[in-house]
Amino acid sequence: MDWLSKNLPYLMAGISVGGQYALIAIGYTMVYGILRLINFAHGDIFMVAGLVMVYASTVMPVYLAIPLVLVVTVVIGFLVERVAYKPLRTAPRMSVMISAIGVSYLLQNMALYVTGGLAQQYPALPWISDTITVFGVTTKRVTVITPPLVILLVAALVMLIQKTKIGMAMRAASKDFETSQLMGIKINSVISMTFIIGSFLAAVGSLLFFSNYTGVTPTVGAMPGLKAFVAAVFGGIGSIPGAVIGAFIIGISENIIKGLGWTTFSDAFTFALLIVVLIFKPTGLFGEAANDKV
Amino acid sequence: MSENVLKVEHVTMQFGGVVAVDNLNLEVNKGEIVSLIGPNGAGKTTAFNVITGVYPPTNGAVYFQGRKIVENHPQGKMRRQYLGENEGKYDHVIAPTPDRITKLGIARTFQNIRLFKSQTVFENILIAEHMRRTSNLFTATLHLNGTEERNMREEADRLLHILELDDVRNEMATSLPYGKQRRLEIARALATKPSLLLLDEPAAGMNPQETDELTAFIGRIRDDFHLTIFMIEHHMDLVMEISDRIYVLDFGKLISQGTPDVVQSDPRVISAYLGVQEDE
Amino acid sequence: MKKKIVSALMAVSMAAVVMAVPALADTVKIGVYEPASGDNGAGGKQEVLGMQYANSITPTVEIGGTEYDVELDIVDNESSNDKGPSAASKLVSDGVSVVLGSYGSGVSIAASDIFKDGGVPAIGVTCTNPQVTQGNTHYFRICFLDPFQGTVLANFAADTFGAKKAYVLTKLGDDYSTGLGFYFTKAFEELGGEVVKGEFPEGNSDFTSYITDAKNEGCDVFFTPTSTEAAANEIEQAAAQGLAIPLLAGDTWDSNVILNAAKGKDVQIYVTTFYQEGGNAEFDEGFKAFINEDSTNLANNGNDDTVAAVSAMGYDAYYTALEALKAAGSTDPAAVNEALWGVTYDGVSGHIEFDQENGDAIRSSAFVKVANTESGAWDFVSEQTISE
Amino acid sequence: MKKQTEAIISVALIAALLAVLFILERTIPSTSMLFTVLKKGAIYALVAVSMNLLNGFTGLFSLGQAGFMLVGAYTYGVLTIPVDQRPNVYMYYDGGMIQFALHPIAAIIIAGIIAGIFAYLIGLPVLRLKSDYLAIATLGFAEIIRAVFQWDKLGPLTNGSNLLRNYPSYKSVLFYFIAAGVCIALIVMLINSTYGRAFKAIRDDEVAAEAMGINLAHHKRIAFVVSSFFAGISGALLAMYQTSIQASMFKSAMTYEILLIVVIGGIGSITGSCISSFLFIILSEWLLRFLDSELVIGGFKVPLLRSGFRKVVFSIIIMIIVLFFRQGIMGTKEFSVRRIFNRITGRSRKSSEGRNGR
Question: Does A146 touch chain D (CB under 8 A)?
Answer without folding.
Answer: no
